[in-house]
Amino acid sequence: MLAAVLWLGNISFNMIDNENHVEAVADESLINVAQLIGCETVDLNLALSTRKMRVGHDNIIQKLTLSQAIDTRDALAKSIYACLFEWLVEQINKSLAVGKRRTGRSISILDIYGFESFGRNSFEQFCINYANERLQQHFNRHLFKLEQEEYIQDGIDWAKVDFDDNQDCLNLFEKKPLGLLSLLDEESTFPNGTDIRLPTSSSSI
To answer: Which fold has domain 123-202?
Structure first.
């Protein structure tokens, strides 16, 4: 499955008409992906270059443009990878279950994205960085703040550990009514809301 994900990234498309509609190039990449995921090449080509829409009681097949086909290809790769990752975690948990039942102990692993900053950042980077800021605060709160408060209450002599509190950064994301998430939610509910108006609203923060 991992090989299928890698080969998917190599699939390219050819224009088939003047309306920017495309179909996948029937080369080694398409053939290998079809074999690896267990389907016919023609079916994979249709899945990557068309979409089925339900209109009333009828199914309509709509051809995809180049940008739509690329998004479909990438979405399929992400979906396969996510399923593979979940399956792998499930198998690891099953193999560790015997030891956990015997000892009552376990090891937990948290795998998260690192902070991302590109030349052009999308909503995905926004969500990733927000999640990381929230996790960082949780870590700081439990490892530094709460522990040191207990030391004070118990009268323990220790060297105070200073840490950067990222609450101001979190307020930028989530404080109501002028946090970025609130402004985004508000703009999304407007009938005439646009991505152009959002930066104007954000400048008031």
So the answer is: Methane Monooxygenase Hydroxylase; Chain G, domain 1 (1.20.58)
Predicted confidence at residue 75, as pLDDT, reads 93
Residue 183, SS3?
helix
Q: Where are the domains of the chain?
A: 2-83, 123-202
| Mean pLDDT within 90-103 | 78
Q: Return the number of other C-beta atoms located less than 10 Å from residue 148's C-beta.
A: 15
CATH class of this structure's domain 2-83: mainly alpha
Answer whether 8's CB lies under 8 Å from 73's CB: yes
- Examine residue 177 and say whether the peptide bond preceding it is cis (omega within 30 degrees of 0): yes
Q: Is the pTM of this model over 0.70?
A: no
Q: Are the C-beta atoms of 205 and 180 separated by less than 8 Å?
A: yes
pLDDT tens digit sequence for 111-138: 766 788 889 888 888 888 898 888 888 8
